[in-house]
Design brief:
Layout: H1 6-28, H2 60-63, E1 78-85, E2 90-95, H3 99-102, E3 111-115, H4 138-141, H5 150-155, E4 159-164, H6 175-183, E5 193-194, E6 200-201, H7 209-222, E7 233-238, H8 240-257, E8 269-273, E9 280-283, E10 286-289, E11 296-297, E12 302-303, H9 309-322, E13 326-332, H10 336-339, H11 343-351, E14 354-358, H12 366-376, H13 390-394, H14 402-406, E15 412-417, E16 428-432
Parallel strand pairs: 3-4, 3-7, 7-8, 8-13, 13-14, 14-15
Antiparallel strand pairs: 1-2, 1-4, 5-6, 9-10, 11-12, 15-16
Length: 440
């Protein structure tokens, strides 16, 4: 089992969060008189509104599905396993909840599942993960251009998957409309998606997109042997996708606790590639939330913590980290998504992740450059025999082994050199004080 370090994590949390955190756990865990039996002894440290009363959940694998007969355009949404096709120099998507999809997965290999971000034109386009040709050269990365970044992970021996929700991520620049669909069904627009003619199908599900992610993942796991998960499972999520995958993983840990998922098949590591944590406007000692208010968290039936999406993401992150999942967070100085976080949220993010501020000068679109950098950095081989400082280890990015990364949680790093190239070989980082980042 991958949760062997759980006791150590609990002890560390008690030290880090103090008595208040310990009391929160005691408050939320049922006692023997409740008669609630858990399949997995999960630690719970999030806000109480994150959990339903009596910890009751629907059967996600059976109940949370789209009606493809009524909405055939949604057949291209969901979780897919990928196979590489040399003839087209591209990947082919196979539904993860089919025998054909399951046959692509080798349990003896590590796994990465990618989750895209907001797509303004997602009603008719799909994120294909092509490397921008102005970001690198064939000589630098050793691949003929154009190339899709997934190719690197196939060649490094990974099972590769992706979660597609582009139709639901297409709301123009209305980020709050996408956020609503992540957490609630009582938002202003409900669960809708935009069609190629730019009209909408309305109220297509009684569940959130985050819940569909969890349901798709569980269905895929049911087709795989229990040994899947003995090797590392990694989620890599860009922008708005980081918000969804954090909520989805929180829900997966809850469903594992009630027997709907083998805990061994939870992710070991999550990369947040310039994740969107909601928009807050700095007002001195306070912050004005620029998002939808009054949302009810669908699976708990309770208001979002502090009535904001961003703080709900942080509550999920704290809970997941307490249960052994390692987070790495990448952003850059000029990122609006980072500057729009509340100071306390930044502090919580630092406490529960490896916090890395880079400067993707190689990219014309820095926000996407963060993602492209991370997915490309797997090409660098990590030499475990070297005696490296923490800052030198961070420079390996995706290639840094997860247990090495785990030892760096709570630390901040800032790039000093190598920003003009996508490959991390020439990158130089320094360890920075955590006090710097919440103030900037």
């Amino acid at each position: 089992m991958k949760r062997l370090g759980l006791t150590v994590v609990v002890v560390l949390l008690a030290v880090c969060f103090g008595l208040a955190g310990a009391l929160a756990v005691n408050k939320l865990l049922p006692n023997e008189d409740d008669g609630i039996k858990f399949a997995w002894d999960k630690v719970r440290v999030a806000h109480e509104n994150m959990y339903p009363d009596n910890f009751e959940y629907v059967d996600y694998a059976e109940e949370v599905k789209f009606d493809y007969e009524k909405y055939p355009l949604l057949e291209n949404q969901g979780l897919f396993w990928l196979k590489w096709d040399d003839a087209s120099n591209s990947y082919i998507k196979i539904d993860a909840d089919t025998a054909e999809g399951a046959s692509l997965v080798d349990p003896s290999k590590p796994t990465i599942i990618n989750i895209h971000g907001m797509l303004v034109e997602g009603y008719y386009t799909e994120e294909m993960y092509w490397m921008p040709e102005d970001s690198t050269t064939s000589e630098e990365i050793g691949y003929d251009m154009p190339v899709q970044t997934f190719k690197f992970w196939f060649d490094k021996g990974y099972n590769v998957g992706m979660y597609s929700y582009q139709k639901f991520a297409a709301e123009g620049i209305s980020y709050n409309s996408i956020e609503e669909k992540m957490w609630a069904t009582n938002g202003e627009i409900g669960i809708r998606y935009q069609k190629p003619d730019t009209t909408y199908d309305e109220d297509v599900s009684e569940y959130t997109i985050t819940e569909h992610f969890a349901a798709d993942y569980i269905r895929a796991m049911k087709l795989l042997p229990d040994s899947f998960g003995d090797k590392e499972i990694r989620f890599a999520a860009h922008s708005m996708g980081g918000q969804m995958v954090t909520g989805g993983t929180f829900l997966l840990t809850e469903l594992a606790s009630v027997g709907q998922l083998n805990p061994n098949q939870l992710p070991d590591r999550i990369c947040m590639e310039d994740t969107f944590f909601g928009a807050f406007i700095d007002m001195g000692d306070n912050a004005l939330y620029a998002g939808t208010k009054g949302l009810i968290l669908r699976w708990s039936g309770k208001p979002l913590p502090n009535d904001t999406t961003g703080e709900t993401v942080i509550e999920c992150l704290k809970d997941i980290a307490a249960n052994g999942v390692v987070f790495e967070y990448y952003s850059y100085d000029a990122s609006f998504l980072r500057s729009a976080q509340k100071k306390q949220m930044k502090k919580d993010l630092i406490d529960n992740s490896v916090y890395i501020v880079m400067d993707p000068k190689f990219a014309s679109n820095e926000h996407c450059g963060v993602r492209d950098f991370y997915l490309t950095s797997i090409l660098v081989d990590y030499d475990s025999s070297l005696e490296l400082t923490d800052a030198e280890k961070v420079a390996y990015a995706a290639s840094l082994p997860t247990e090495e990364l785990r030892a760096l949680v709570g630390k901040c790093f800032r790039v000093q050199e190598g920003q003009t190239t996508i490959m991390p070989n020439d990158d130089v980082y320094i360890e920075a004080t955590s006090q710097y980042y919440p103030a900037n």
